[in-house]
Structures are given as C-alpha cells and as structure tokens.
Amino acid sequence: MSMTATFHTHFGAMSFQKMLQRRGVPAEMMPVPRALSASCGVCVRFEGEFEPSMASDDLEAVYRGLPDGFELVYRQEE
C-alpha cells in the first residue's frame, strides 16, 4: 500500500526517509502532490503501513494513496 508523508521541514523529510530505509522499507523523497499541502514542499512516498511510533516532530501528516486521491491516515497534533 502506497503511503505519502508530508513534513514541516526538508530535514524532517530526509530524516524520515533514512529511518524507513534503515528498517528496510523502500522510500523516496519527491515533490508534494498538488492534492496535498505541506510546509516544505517535499514528501516521502513509501510502501507499507504507518505506525504512530514512526512519527517525529517534523511530521505533518500521512496519507494513503487511493485510485481517486488520498485518504488522511495520521495528522500530527500541534
């Protein structure tokens, strides 16, 4: 299942991608899709399920990719 994580900072996205790769989860940084908004303009797309323990302070939200768009799975509390 394709997931897209958005971030407040570019550094947060890079750190999240590296954490996923250390766990053996394929992940790539890319521009945020137009249907989503993000503070830093980049997101991390990865396969698998999101677990709240994966969240960091820089994480904005996580979305599940659907055939017709995105579904919000997780949003960081402010």
Tell me the strand order in the biggest sheet: 2-3-1-4-5
Approximate strand percentage? 35-45%
Alpha carbon gyration radius? 11 Å
> What proportion of the residues is helical, as a percent range?
10-25%
How many structural units, i.e. domains? 1
- From N to C, what is the helix and strand string? EHEEEE
Structural class label: alpha+beta
The profile of the biggest β sheet is: 5 strands, antiparallel
Based on Cα principal axes, name the global outline: globular
Low-pLDDT windows of residues: none
Write the layout of secondary structure elements.
Elements: E1 2-7, H1 10-22, E2 27-31, E3 42-47, E4 59-66, E5 69-75
Antiparallel strand pairs: 1-3, 1-4, 2-3, 4-5
Can you characterise this structure?
The chain is α+β, with helices and mostly antiparallel strands and 78 residues long. It has one domain. The protein has one helix spanning 10-22; strands spanning 2-7, 27-31, 42-47, 59-66, 69-75. Strands 2-3-1-4-5 form a five-stranded antiparallel sheet, covered by helices on one side. The longest helix is centred in the N-terminal third of the chain and has 13 residues, at 10-22.
Tell me briefly what this model is.
The chain has 78 residues and is an alpha+beta fold.
Features:
1 helix, globular
